[in-house]
Fold this sequence. Notes:
Blueprint: H1 15-29, H2 60-65, H3 81-95, H4 100-107, H5 110-123, H6 128-145, E1 148-154, E2 157-162, E3 165-166, H7 181-196
Antiparallel strand pairs: 1-2, 2-3
Helix pairs in contact: 6-7
Amino acid sequence: MRRAMPTYEYQADPPVLRRAKALAHILANMTIAIAPDEIIVGNQASAPRAAPLFPEYLVDFLADEIDDFPRRRADVFEVSPEVRASILQDIVPAWRGKTLNDRVMAIMPEDVAAAREELTDRYGPLPAPAQRLLRVAELRIACAAAGLRQLETRGDKVLLSDAHGYCLTQHRFPRLRGRSADEKLAELSALVRAFRSRVPAPAGSRS
């Protein structure tokens, strides 16, 4: 396992500076390992056949499962006493409540959160496509709560409608600016929240 990177030391900084300082620390301290006659060089961790940790995504499973790593059927890892102590005493407490998973769970509807928790318990950290499916489910729930009957995208155009007709922004259909699926989902969620906060017009399309 890789050595813990002290990214939590920069928590008081804005996100852009926090990431820059963490990257600077990694580049200044990470060793470059090149084995004899190796053609494709580089390691993902500090030793061959070691695994990196990504506590910024999910950290609780480390505390719950670290003692099972050497005994499980697949993806077996030997954890030294020093690394185990560092994970349980430093990394887990530093990241608990601050991970990406914590942020998502805090805003996720209860049913979707329960499904996400069950899937994570069974299969570990979820891949990006599964994460997006859960976000789509969350978006559908938000649409229903907002009284929206339609949410559809055609190219970059967003078609939102409720009982009064299409929901417009400055007399136009909203447009998506993001390129990736995650960016588009974030924009759609923001649109639904914005329309949910509005007072429904008595009739016709809203603007």
